[in-house]
Amino acid sequence: MNSLLKKLTAFFTRTSPDNPIPSPLPILKFWEISSPKDNVQFLQLLSELLPLGSTLYLEGTTIAEDVKAYLKARPARPEMAIPRGTIWPKPQCFHMPITTENTAGLIDLSEHHAEPEICSHLHAYHNGQMYLFWYDAFFAGPKEFLYLSQKIPE
Predict the structure, then answer these.
(1) Which among 72, 82, 94 is positioned nearest to 129, based on CA atoms?
(2) Theoretical Cys-Cys bridge with 91: which of 58, 66, 86, 130, CB 3.0 to 4.6 Å?
(3) Cis before residue 36, ω within 30 degrees of 0?
(4) What DSSP assignment string belongs to 59-86?
(5) Global pTM?
(6) Which residues contact 151 (CB under 8 A, 6 or more apart)?
(7) What is the rounded distance in angstroms from the CA atom of residue 137 to the CA atom of residue 71?
(8) What's the rounded Cα separation, in Å, for the pair 88 and 14?
(9) CA 130: distance to chain centroid?
(10) High-pLDDT (> 90) share of the chain, %
């Protein structure tokens, strides 16, 4: 188990007032994938890639007002505590059902906004299991990765 996974496992077992539900990191086997270069294509694949009924978690401190309004209008009941990726300033966090329609709207918004105006961190889960976690989402640095559950075939 690499050091990032060890840190994330410890991090995911913590709770906070915003996320009172303890949730151990349920991914022990994951694919480490380089940050996608095409954000629109990545968002298009979400509803195809993840199990039906999955939830998208978006977090950020610079989310645009119209993006916030879009996410607030499509809430999912949080089923998992997701540790915040930003300590200060306090980020806004949204849980949204992953559907073709919801993803299409997010794609439309992403075509008119810089990535930090969509989110800073992006995760997806289903039935209490993390399927994707991506801290510093859309930052395409040379050592930036997203992690995808190996329950999704290669």
Answers:
(1) 82
(2) 86
(3) no
(4) EESS--HHHHHHHHTS-----S----S-
(5) 0.80
(6) 129, 131
(7) 17
(8) 17
(9) 9
(10) 44
